[in-house]
Protein 1
Amino acid sequence: MTIGVILLVHADLGRAARVARIWAAQGCAVAVHVDARVPRGAFDGVRAMLAGESRIGFTRRFACEWGTWGIVAATQAAAQTLLADPAVRHVYLASGSCLPLRPAAELAAHLADHPDTDFIESVTAADVGWTVAGLNEERFTLRFPFAWRRRRWLFDRTVELQRRLRLCRRPPEGIAPHLGAQWWCLTRRTLDAILTDPRRAEFDRYFRQVWIPDESYFQTLARRHARRIESRSLTLARFDSSGRPHLFHDDHAALLRQSNCFVARKIWPGAERLYAEFPAPASRPGPPDPDRIDRLFARAEAERQRGRPGLYNQARFPRKDAENGKTAAPYAVLQGVADLFPEIGPWLARATGFTVHGRLFHPGRVEFANGDAAAPGGLSDSAALRDHDRRAFLTNLVWAARDQRQVFMARPGETADLTWFMATDPNARILIVPGAWILALSRAPRPFAELRSRAVALQKAEDAQLAILTSPHARARVRAWPLAEALDAPEGLLAGLLGEVAALPPGPMAPPPRLADVSGLPDLLRRLRDSGLRPPVSADALRAFSEAAARVPARAAR
Amino acid sequence: MVRVIESYRLGMTRRRLLWRARRQGRRLRPFADRTAAIRPGDILLAVVQRNEMPRLPYFLDWYRRLGVAHVLAVDNGSDDGSRDWLADQPDVSVWTTPDSYRAARFGMDWLTHLLGRHGHDHWVVTADPDEFLVYPFHDSRPLAALTGWLDAAQARSYPAMLLDMYPRGAVDESRYRPGDDPFETACWFDAANYTIRPNPVHGNLWIQGGPRARAMFADRPGLAPSLNKIPLVRWRRGYVYTSSTHMLLPRGLNRVWDRLGGERPAGCLMHAKFLSPMAAKVAEEMERGEHFAGGQEYRAYAEALAGGGGFWTPWSTRFAGWRQLERLGLMSRGGWA
């Protein structure tokens, strides 16, 4: 038995000739169709190149404008030539930029195992959106007098006009439009039936006006004649989201071999290594399995369309709220916790394994964990550099350290410009002990008037921040821990912290870190109250806390 | 209305720059003109150089390996033999000029002129002798594969951010010899230390940061050098680089980034500036005062070099190929797989 191969060629004639030889050398009968638009001289050149090959013939040339009838006409003529040879049992439609990956003998064996099967992707146009970035059903119901590639404006206008006038053609009686990849392998019986169908003239007349008939003519008519259709192509050909074919390059060699497909398309004309290595002498038997290649293309496509969440670079700078991930990974902001537990950083780092920074947005200096001068990605501890673009500082840090959870401390107002950004970022975990700043204030050796105005400013900043964090637009995980409760049960705050930030289940904890000194606090609270302010906590709430604070050194002494 | 006025103004700017280029370009003297050998579809490289003899051999080989077919070189008064060396290369055309680099918009007028005459409808890489283009798959797919794919996607330009590479120790510690791979020693870079803001007028992204911002401009980050570059363009007569290769007119060429979350294709220009003999070069360039913003960048280098410090930190990343750059998000394949 012989496999007949139709080779549609329109460019890179040298390559195409080489591919024709590859098929012919393995005993296939090859019918080469060269696009009529290829200049005479180039055509004569390739014909001379293949002159001595008895298995290779050239067929009548048609102009193959993309998307038009010429390609089908060329295929019909080439098929007729091949079927004239009674030894041809199957006809494989390929192009000059296809490359056989496996020996023709393996293809022949596969076809011999399925003597009555037509391998042609054929999907009903009515039920399935097979096409990418283009017309689907309308391919069959409108008319297309203008070529899309050259006359795009007229093409679009005629489509528009027909839609507006509600013009609609009906397919011929007994025809159900099907779509599929152009590259098929049909049995002699089916192909012959299509070409000698008494109604062929009627079908041809109809398909002349269908858009991209090479993806529907044989796909539709095979349904009329075939005994058994396996609706997938034996040729590995993939398209990107704008309908352009993916090209195969030298670095795809391993994937192509592993795919076990018989033929691949399109090969980049310069892919020397692929042309040298394929068809592979002997491959593992079995059906095609292009899974890994599909995954590779799918991943690239997802990256092009949606990008990597949290990445800002020269190729991806999403406008506000179109980020698809404002940051790359979860991170946590602790506000007020360090006022209660000054040494919370090392303690939390030990308990969770996270990187726990100090105040990253401290006005004077970036307080990286361990007092480092630099951080992942090469970020510097210079406040001026950070303030040049504070949001980029945060997103860079989270991106660069995306496999290591980042935690940092904040004071009210310090991150005011980033509050909306973090509040609308589902990756942000924000734990606030409102009013805890009063503890730090009570230890500051400053005149009361200064402390008072500072307290007013901090309170205002915190109120504004909380209003945003609790707004209905907020998507961050926010937890406000009442100061009175924290003071009453400091270890409860630590347990809550581990639960919120690290999602650790409740359980035994390491000995808690040292509690802050609150000896000056009752006095400050009283004076603030008497000066007409409303302090964030009453002096009564302090009792338990100061008792606990007093207990800790005792335990340490024991 | 504002947009109309703005685009009219940019059109005027473009015409003014083209006119400048014509005037400046007429003064270029052909020294070795092999442009008759340029065939349609060839990929070209355009470069301005002065006394870069140590760097040129590796530089040319890099781009030859990527499949550049012809080099358009302007020699700005070299006296180290580099002009003659370039003229001896079979795939290089050389023009010379003793004119001021600064008065020619840092060489851009010269190149605009040459590209208008020889680069029309070619893909052209415009790079300095210390800039090395990398892009996804550059080790297995020549530039023609990339440009062919860009053509199919109807893209006219391709961005490649400048990636400053530096050695582990002080810049002048190890000796660089002609033909050496500069990234053998200058193999470190900052992975995620860059700031980006869109330029609403020209439509490009303005990128700053990296080791130079960190080590030399920490107290005035706004003055740190720009790192955004668009070095690969399917050139047409009438295109013009407005500021180094940072951006072009017409401004549609600068729209190489995605605003809706996707990633467009982008490469990197690995920057081998920080190599010995750095100190000598800095001293010479400060003397000449031919560089951008009164050479303030060179002044900063001089200060940094005088301190003997390098750019290296424990958080520097060691270069390990384009896949690493892609994983780090410095470049994007943009759907090219």
Note: The two ends of chain B are 42 Å apart (CA to CA).
Protein 2
Amino acid sequence: MTITTSAPPSATGTKGPDGRAQRSRKHSFREIWWIYVFLLPTLLGYGAYTVYPLLASWWYALLDWPGFAVSGEFVGLQNFERLLTDHQFWNAFGKSLLFLVIAVPARVGLALLLALWLNSKRTPFSGFFRTLFFLPVVTTGAIIGIVFTLLLDGGGPISLGLVWAGITETPTNLVANAGTSLYAGIAVWVWKWLGITMIYWLAALQTVPQDVHEAAMLDGANGRKEFWHVTLPLLVPFLVIITLIDTVSALNVFDLMQTLTAGGPAFSSEVIEIFIYRTAFAATVPQLGYASAAAVLFGLLTVIIAVAQGAGVRWARARMGGGS
Amino acid sequence: MSATATRTLLRNGRALRPGRVLTFVGLLVLALVWIYPFIWLLSASVKDSSEIFGSGLDLIPDQFVWENYLRAWNEAGFASYFVNSVLITAGTVLLVVVRSALAGYVLGRFDFPGKKLLIGVFLVTFFLPEGYTIIPVTQLTDQLGLLNTHAGVILGLGAGGQIASTLLYAGYFRGLPKELEESAKLDGAGPFRTFFQIMMPMAWPITATVVILTFLFAWNTYLLPLVFTLSEPDLRTLAIGMTVFVGEYGQDWSGMAAAAVISLVPVVVVFVILQRKFVDSIAGAVKQ
């Protein structure tokens, strides 16, 4: 998403010839004051609810602050020192990374397969199927989490289905088991969001010119060969962008994971957001400063990932020939 | 032979092939598995609680128990949760549309001191996770005295963030001819009248997109209302009400399923009616 800074120059009072530059700039403010009126809601709202919290959390991270009713006490870097040796924090950090590393490739890859299938000219009713696969995307993550606690119950349909299919011998509740709870969460997350990634891929596939397909077909390339050598290289720039979008999405899984497993059992699926929420809001003595420090480290992780992938996106854009 | 002719020939040649039928059947099975959770949920919502886990994989209830819905709607308080969700979603959508249209208009069409800085700040904070700012946002809302009000939740959801909406408007307004302002000026219209009477009506496709995306976001949001309204029964949204329901009536599975259906129906119905626009909105937003 980019905005070029070029705009109709006429409305802004451009600098006149040398002698009049000063006067015309003053004049221009009288002409453009209304622009700032238009921006006022955004400046106030964005300043107070995005920029200020961003900066304030760095300050809060330096406080010992046991609740909103009292004021915090400055303790320097103590919170960060404590975080470095807090195995619960690193557990949560690790779970978030694991979630990312498994869930994002699964979502991006499976969505591509589905999109290729639906994009094929031979596939009937592809619009109807697209709607069905997209349906979970519009639903409320927290409600889905609760519904899946029922679906995944030992006596529920998924457990019985696994027994029926011979995958497990006895009914098991996958979210009540420390060995499988995180993976169950990943599976539900991929299911819920696959449809939107599929739409991204379908949009990307629209940019692959039809005659490229046909040329390859006439050259005698079979479907698979054509995909690897013709279609896939054209999709690489989109792969980078879609992976970035899905990675950010994988760092925002609080609603689903809190309602599905609440981080349990025994912290086996506690992603970093649940750790922050638990420390700040669900503990008997809230530790707002400590939770802020965790949030700051988590934010740094996000920024690092976003910057790394941003570089990737820029590279991808260049490959696409400047267009987006 | 022209490319079109080849394509037609290929398509006709393949129309009756078994491959096409297999593809269809395979996709149909996959799609049914995909939406099975919703079918199961509908079925569970009209079963007796004891039947949900007692009757194996049977989806048809022995007896339809519509009381589940009455119980969730009246006793469990989903009537008022529903109203809260509607109010908060509507307020957030309105706030985001007005705010991002105004900002998008001037960002898309005019140069002014500070513009580059503003866009820089937008891009830096574009991917900021919600969990990162929830503590300062709560503290701020508390200091504004809005912690236990609808307005507090609406401001928390819609006042910050939402950069995508602003950029969508900016992109659209940038593409409109600049003669629009010039002729409006000749008619004696100031910037405000120009915006509300000429620009805003023209931008309705973007407004539709922003309304849809913000509606989805606000209706489905969880963390902020959880922190703000968990202890305030009068303010709870559907998602928070559901959490409370699980805590209070953990064994009432059929009531839970009915409550979940109540919570999901509005967003699913809107989606089914506007599905084309939904999909285009999202595909359009990512292409930007």
Note: Residues 78-109 of chain B form the longest helix (32 residues).
